[in-house]
Each structure stands twice: as structure tokens, then as C-alpha cells.
Amino acid sequence: MRVLEFTSVTIADGGTVKAGAWDGGTGGVVAFLATGVVANDGVITATGAGFRGGTYSNPGCVGPLNSALDGAPNAAKGEGIVSGRYGPTFIGLGNVVNGAGGGNTCNGGGGGGSNAGQGGLGGWWAQSPGGGGGMGGSALVYVPWTRLTMGGGGGAGHGNDSAAGVGGRGGGIVFVRAAALTGAGSVSADGLNGADAGGILGANSDAAGGGGAGGTLYLRFSSSAACGAMTVNGGRGGSTPELTATGGPCGPGGGGAGGNLFVQADDVSSCPSQALAGLAGTQPDGTWNQYFGAGPDAGANGLYAGLVTVTTPGFDAGLPDAGPPDAGPPDAGPTDAGALDAGTPDAGPPDAGPPDAGAPDAGPSDAGPVDGGPPDAGQADGGLPDSGALDGGATDAGASDAGALDAGTGDAGEPDAGQPDAGNSDDAGSGQNPPADAGAAAPTELHVGCGCGTQSASTWGWAALLLFATLLRLPYPRLARSRNASATRSTRSWSGEG
Fold first, then answer.
1. Percent of the chain at pLDDT exceeding 70
2. Where are the domains positioned within the chain?
3. Distance separating alpha carbons of residues 197 and 468, to the nearest angstrom
């Protein structure tokens, strides 16, 4: 997906930046970059935007109580990271990685979805302790700076009286990278609660749905982070009313697991974080345990809680380099030993002949004009200055030079004012280089999801230029690191729901 970059982002009190719900192909993610501050007094959220919960069905209590992982006549599973394993035909109490299992016949509760923590087990069959509840999703082991995952969906409760609860959706993904985070607003990717079973206290009811798991927050700042809260909490399991007609309750839903929260900044002490699991749903009959086999209960959040990772200090803000020039490879040849030529460098091809080998004139100093003969008309000099001794100014006493004549700059009658070059011509690596380029602008697009690096076409263009410049030994611009992205968009303020 394409991720936009801004110079700053402002979300006013009451404003919302919200992910669209995942639909099996798109949605579920809020992602943006800012070279400046993200000022959030509202809400940045992907709560309930992740993997979908098990859908409603009413298959009836057909046959004996069963513990089948898949197949009829059981309730629908929640969605997880396995593509193509979600829909009305994927039923039974078995999970699909982080997607929870549905409740089995008769009236087993749906399991809770998972992410960094384990999803809770759905409650038992109606009035029958021991089984029937959907399995919670399995805990995922990964780090959020290599991949980002939405929370798994809760499984649906089993129904036979058209009153079963559906599974809760998992939380989505929030990806933000900026200079700083300020304000009292929240950042969240929580899972949604499983739906309660229908009916009223004292009337017939079915099983409840499991909660969705918390999603993932990936928040990186080059300085400090302050906020009201950062959360990736799991959703609560749905509850059931008492089924008095047959003397006991149906299965509540399991709680959704906590998600995965990664934040990097110089200081995050003013930004509290949570990755708690949702508790299981309950039933009201005091003759039974209130959770009726569903988990987690109030004292068992450990395995079901998510992961919070805080890293300090903040990341490199990636401002353009203002330091020393030329970080490229050192020059292969020696630097100039003499003063720089005052004249224009020769532009012709290399001199085909050897350098002048004659000694300086031994005769007396010229009394008349220098070189009265016609101007040189020989082969153009290739740009390397003569390596012989400097003409001392005496008139030529012998024949003209036997080598190829210098036609690169054309003698104007006066000898060079400086010393002859003792080495190569001026090279780009000497101390006479101009200040280095401040850094090429980094690409404004970032691709997220594959866990691999990407390069823009402009980066490959710079790579070709770098190779060409190195061959010619010319000054070249330095390539900016991918994280040294400079702002190319104007300040954009967010307000209202978007």
C-alpha cells in the first residue's frame, strides 16, 4: 500500500483518523509519515478494523454433543492469517492459527481471537460442563519491526433458537513514524467484544461469540512521545442469559487476546500503554461458575495478554547531512603537489606525444618579446600539464620543440604564473572540493506489508550517476538513506472523522 508523508499532522479534540474495516482484501490499516510533529488531541484508531469474527448461523442441536474441529452442525470460525479459510463453510471448534474456533453443538461458546497472546476458550455446551467451546486462537510469535499483523477474529456461538452471538472483529494496524507525538489523544487497535446471546433473563437463549484480539501499533518517533493512551487490548467474550427451561446456562464467549505494541522514542513516560486480554463472558446462574468454562477469567490474564515493546532513544530523524563533504571512496591517485593552474583546463583529447624532454634554455634572458614565432598548431593537449621544467624566459636558441605542440590553451606569450603540476590534474577528492550536496531527497512513498526493503526508481538513477561519477573522478551527490525522507507535502491538519 502507498503511505503518504506530511510535514505535520494535527488532530483536534473530537477529530478521528480511522482505518476502514478489513473486507478480505483491503482496509484494516492507518499508516502515515510526518517529518515534523503529530499533534493528536483526538483519536488515531484501527479498533475493530482487523480480521473478521465468525458469522451468525443457527444450525440447531443435531445429534449428540460433539468436539469436532471442523464440520457441521457447528458454528463459524473467526478469520486469521491463513488466506481462504474464512466463511460460512469453515465451521467447528478448531482454530485457524489466530482465528478462533466456533462453538459446537449444542450451544458451545465461540473462542477468542489471538495475536501476541493466546485467545480464550469458549464456554461449555448447554448445561453440560466439559467441552463444546471454540478453541482460542494460537499466540503468534513475531516482532513488529519485521512484520505487522491484525488481531484474529473471535468464533461465533452455536445456536438453535436463532439467538446465537457472532464473534468480535480483531484490531487492525496503526503505523506512524514522525519527529514527535504530542497531545492528550489516544492511539488504539483494540479488538471488539463478542456479541452476547439473544433473549432475556429467564428466556431461551443460545451461546455467545468470542472476542476479537488486539491488533498492532507500530509507532516510531525521533524525539519524545506524549499521549492519553496507546492500547491493543482484546475484546471481551459475549455473555448469555440463563436458560431456565432446561435448568442451566449456555456457553459464554472466550476473551480476545492482547495485541502487539511497539513504540520508539526518547521518552514515552507520558504515554501509557496496554495490551490486555479481554475477559470471558459470563452467565448469571449462581449454581454454576460464572464463566461456565470460558476463559480467561479475572485471575488468568498472563498467557492471554499481549506484548508491549518500548525502545529508547528515538530513531534517527533523517535530516539532510550538514557535515563534511565527500563520504565516498578515497582518490586512487596522489593529490596535487603544486598550486592550482590559473588558466582554463585543457578540454582536448590526451596528448599522443611524450612530454617535453628538453632542458631549460641556457642562454641569456630574452631582451625582446617572448616567442615571436607563429602560434602552435599541433595536436591538442589532453589536459595534463607539461611535466618538464618551467621555461625560464630566455629566447629559444635551438630548433622548435620536437614533441607535439601544446594547442590546448594556446600560449599567450607569458609563462604560467604558478608552479607546474607535479602529479595528476586537479582531482575531486582533494581539499579543494566544493561543499557536499545536502543530500538527495528520499522517496516519498513507502511500501508496507512484505517485510522487505524497497527502492524507488530515483534511487537506481542515483546509483548509475554514482558509478559514472566515480569513473570520471568528478564530485558526486551523496545518496540519502531511505529513512532520511524530507517533507514534500504541505502541512495538513486533520479534523472531524476521516
1. 61
2. 1-318+486-498, 323-331+425-482
3. 70
What predicted TM-score, i.e. pTM, was given to this entire model?
A: 0.66
Asked if the peptide bond before residue 313 counts as cis, ω within 30 degrees of 0, the response is yes
H/E segment holding residue 465: helix 457-472
DSSP assignment, residue 193?
P
Quick one: how far is CA 140 from the chain centroid? 19
Least Cα distance to 131 among 58, 194, 207, 202 occurs for: 207
- DSSP letters, 335-392, are PPSSPPPSSPPP-SPPP-SPPP-PPPP-SPBPSS-S--SPPP-SPPP-SPPP-SPPP-
What tens digit of pLDDT does each residue of 439-498 get? 333 433 333 333 333 333 333 333 333 333 333 333 333 333 333 333 333 333 333 333
Tell me how far apart the alpha carbons of residues 208 and 98 are, in angstroms, rounded to a whole number: 19
DSSP secondary structure, 34-73, as one string? ESSEEEESSEEE-TT-SSPPPPP------SS----SS-TT
What phi-psi label fits residue 472: left (phi over 0), alpha (psi between -120 and 50 degrees) or beta?
alpha
User: Containing H/E element for 466?
Assistant: helix 457-472
Contacts of 454 (CB under 8 A, 6+ apart): 446, 447
State whether the Cα torsion 115-73-294-55 is positive or negative. positive
Residues 8, 24: Cα–Cα separation, whole Å: 32
**CA atoms of 276 and 136, how far apart (whole Å):** 15
CA neighbours closer than 13 Å in the CB half-sphere of residue 66: 21
Single out the residue of 284, 282, 276, 275 nearest to residue 297, CA to CA.
Answer: 282
How far CA 439 is from CA of 58, 109, 319, 326, in Å, comes to 63, 59, 9, 11
Question: What is the phi/psi pair of residue 239, to 5°?
Answer: -105, 165
DSSP H or E run through 220: strand 216-221
Residues of the chain with pLDDT under 50: 319-327, 330-498
